[in-house]
Design brief:
With 454 residues, this protein is of the alpha/beta class. It has 20 helices and 13 strands. It has helices at 2-9, 38-46, 60-63, 90-95, 98-112, 123-128, 132-143, 159-174, 199-210, 224-228, 245-255, 267-281, 284-305, 309-312, 323-335, 350-359, 372-381, 394-399, 417-433, 436-440, and strands at 53-57, 84-85, 117-121, 147-150, 187-193, 213-219, 235-238, 259-261, 316-320, 339-344, 365-367, 386-389, 404-406. Helix 15 (323-335) links the parallel strand 9 and strand 10. Helix 5 packs parallel to helix 7 (132-143) and helix 15 runs parallel beside helix 16. The longest helix is centred in the middle third of the chain and has 22 residues, at 284-305. The structure holds iron/sulfur cluster. Iron/sulfur cluster binds next to helix 2.
Length: 454
């Protein structure tokens, strides 16, 4: 495990390795797990594999950490939505939890017959020394079904590190273990796309139109079997730059699959990602089809957005999100005619920050500290019209009577692709023009001067 953690921290495809001042990813500080521990990150990355069983080996509390908190959808099986845990109690913590783990695996096999079981270690089971690898090896032999150890206990570091360790697990135990029934010259993998609110389905629709096939969904709406044959793809697209970059890099090294990091938020980013895929597939005819699709979709989008433009034009936004969204949503908002006056960067990589700076003016504030205080300060000092952020900031915005739109993984709306951008425009326009904001600024009826604004 030590080797895996060090490798994930020193990932050469991460910008830290090319930046002299930042030799490795920041090592965890006490209390860092409050923003999501490594176990949480590993589970976030693997849980969308919908037909697999995901068994958390540890106390019940760990399993409640992120289970059902994310809007990652499946078009078929729902086994991934079960909160499976060994639920360790004091006696197992003292005498070891291996017996309980074997019993849990047996129960899962008999009840659900899954194609695979992912077993996640947690702080407790790693500290008491349960030999996850050995148990998984023996249980795989016993049941004839892969039982895969995910060695990412919470104490090793951040959520991001856990995501990488999940990538390492896929590379070590899953990818390359099977072959697809057929391949085409247009097979790609989507890596780090979690099908939040069904976004992957809209991306698939676009790819289908030009004849690009998603060979393996890693992992949104994924199936265990398709991830086994991911090594047959011609191109890897890494949708979230923080997550699973190590997996894409290793697949390039071992299977010579080129990869790029891209996004589907906003028309510009969507077009650019489609062009990059076609370019890497090295097919002139495909490139022509992609160009035609982009022209057609942009024309339609332009028409569809006309109704929202008067409400959105010139409105000031504070954007507080992380990863790929921290820069690609900026482009999407600018395409809608809005001005991004402040952007959160504390969950962004150095590369994300460079991309943010390319897209905003010098007077845009970069909020590099977490916490609602700094976001509110930016909203006030920049006189922003609205806040677009993750769910945990929603109540702060509502208490402060600031129009708010949820953008992170808990949301129930897809914003990717051309259709997603139209939906984003509609939701922002509705948020901004909702009469509740005027009412919220009035005094309560029992207060003096009801008719007066504040
Ligand atoms: S794995 Fe460790 S840090 Fe993560 S939720 Fe469990 S106890 Fe907390």
């Amino acid at each position: 495990m030590r080797r895996q953690v060090l490798e994930a921290l020193e990932e050469p495809a991460c910008e830290h390795s090319t930046n002299e001042n930042l030799k490795v990813c920041a090592r965890p500080k006490p209390g860092q797990a409050s923003g999501g521990c490594s176990f949480d990150g590993a589970q976030i990355a693997l849980l969308p594999i919908a037909d697999a069983a995901h068994l958390v080996h540890g106390p019940l509390g760990c399993s409640g950490n992120s289970w059902e908190g994310r809007g990652s959808l499946s078009s078929g099986p729902h086994l991934y939505q079960y909160g499976l845990t060994t639920d360790l109690k004091e006696s197992e913590i003292i005498f070891g939890g291996e017996k309980k783990l074997r019993e849990a695996i047996g129960e899962i096999m008999e009840r659900f017959s899954p194609p695979a079981v992912f077993v996640y270690s947690t702080c407790v089971t790693a500290l008491i020394g349960d030999d996850l690898e050995a148990i998984c090896r023996e249980e795989t032999r016993k049941w004839g079904v892969p039982v895969i150890p995910v060695n990412s206990p919470g104490f090793v570091g951040s959520k991001n590190l856990g995501t990488r360790l999940a990538g390492e697990t896929l590379f070590q135990y899953v990818i390359g273990t099977s072959d697809p029934p057929e391949t085409t010259p247009y097979d790609i993998n989507l890596i780090g796309e979690y099908n939040i609110a069904g976004e992957m389905w809209e991306i698939k629709e676009l790819l289908d139109k030009v004849g690009i096939r998603i060979l393996s969904r890693i992992t949104g709406d994924g199936r265990f079997q398709e991830i086994r044959w991911a090594h047959h793809a011609k191109v890897n697209m890494v949708v979230c730059s923080r997550a699973l970059i190590n997996l894409a890099r290793k697949m390039e090294e071992h299977y010579q699959i080129p990869y790029f990091e891209g996004s589907f938020y906003g028309a510009g980013e969507t077009g650019s990602s489609l062009r990059k895929i076609a370019g890497l597939l090295k097919d002139r005819e495909l490139e022509r089809r992609v160009e035609e699709l982009i022209q057609e979709e942009e024309k339609k989008l332009h028409r569809d957005l006309l109704q929202y433009r008067p409400v959105l034009k010139g409105k000031k936004v504070v954007l507080y999100t992380g990863g790929v969204k921290s820069w690609s949503v900026i482009s999407a908002l600018q395409e809608l005619g809005m001005e991004v006056v402040a952007v959160g960067t504390n969950k962004s990589t150095q590369e994300d920050i460079a991309r943010i700076k390319e897209r905003v003016g010098a007077d845009t504030e970069l909020i590099d500290e977490g916490g609602s205080g700094s976001i509110l300060k930016a909203v006030r000092s920049k006189k922003a019209d609205m806040m677009i952020a993750g769910g945990r900031n929603m109540y702060v915005a509502l208490k402060e009577k600031i129009p708010f739109l949820e953008i992170n993984q808990e949301r129930h709306t897809a914003y990717a692709g051309y259709t997603g951008l139209k939906r984003l425009a509609k939701h922002i326009a509705h948020t901004l023009s909702h009469p509740v904001w005027q009412l919220a600024h009035k005094k309560a009826p029992w207060c003096e001067g009801w008719a007066d604004d504040r």
